[in-house]
Specification:
The structure is a single chain. This protein is of the alpha+beta class. The protein has a single domain, classed as Double-stranded beta-helix. Helices cover about 20% and strands about 45% of the residues. The chain has four helices and 19 strands. The strands form four sheets. The protein has a six-stranded antiparallel beta sheet with strand order 5-6-3-10-13-8, with no helix packed on it.
Length: about 240
């Protein structure tokens, strides 16, 4: 895959395809493309596998884009302010990721839903009971919210992470959840009831921003703005009536 990441904090991936070369993404990910790029939509792996992927934040259908001329260009934009990172997937490098991490990949990269072995880790850890799993072989471009911090964990080394800040980690890293101890920490610490624990060996990619946190920060302003609009609308209606 020949690609270029553009756009700063609102990134997109420009991909150049030669004749017969393809990339695979989920429905609605394409921003724009040359007329020489064709599109084919299908449910890879059958209906049940497709439904399973939906629970991990991927669309029901995959879309394959293929170049019909050398130098065909197609662009995929991130769905959230943040970072687009490339990963090389092969038999020794498989990854687990948050929901919605998948942006685009070579056709040889398998995108699956995987159930966390620890039920409570999946249910309470912030990334959901079902994660995205990337295996096979090829280049993957993944979305990470906000800026990215890479941590290389040694064997047995652990890191505790606030819910939702885990973006992606190597399959060699174990994933668990532990409760916050102490009544004052639980009620006044502002960290919630649980923290995610990742234990090496392997690499972890953390994200500085989460969609949930941003939505909470913006919610008061959106509500206030909506209230003003409603009042203005009501006043206008009253004036019209008089």
């Amino acid at each position: 895959m020949k690609y270029e990441i553009i756009g700063g904090p609102f990134p997109a991936a420009n991909i150049t395809l030669n004749t017969g070369e393809s990339v695979r993404t989920q429905s609605g990910a394409m921003a724009w493309a040359d007329s020489s790029v064709t599109m084919e939509t299908n449910a890879e792996g059958g209906l049940l596998k497709s439904i399973g992927r939906m629970f991990s934040g991927t669309s029901l259908m995959f879309v394959t884009h293929t170049g019909t001329e050398d130098g065909s260009k197609i662009t995929f934009s991130s769905s959230f302010p943040g970072t687009i990172l490339p990963f090389q997937v092969d038999s020794e490098h498989e990854y687990f990721a948050q929901k919605s991490a998948f942006l685009v990949a070579d056709p040889g990269v398998e995108v699956d839903a995987t159930v966390n072995k620890n039920f409570w880790a999946g249910l309470l850890g912030g990334e959901g009971f079902i994660l995205q799993k990337f295996s096979g072989e090829g280049t993957l471009l993944a979305e990470i919210d906000g800026s990215v911090v890479e941590v290389d964990l040694a064997a047995g080394q652990s890191i505790k992470i606030e819910t939702g800040h885990v973006a992606l980690f190597e399959s060699t890293v174990s994933y668990d959840v532990e409760s916050v101890s102490g009544a004052k920490n639980i009620f006044f610490g502002g960290q919630g009831l649980f923290l995610t624990t990742l234990t090496g060996p392997g690499k972890v990619w953390l994200q500085t921003l989460t969609a949930h946190d941003m939505a909470q920060k913006l919610s008061p302003y959106i509500s206030s703005s909506s209230g003003v609009n409603v009042s203005s609308s009501s006043s206008s209606s009253a004036s019209s009536g008089s």
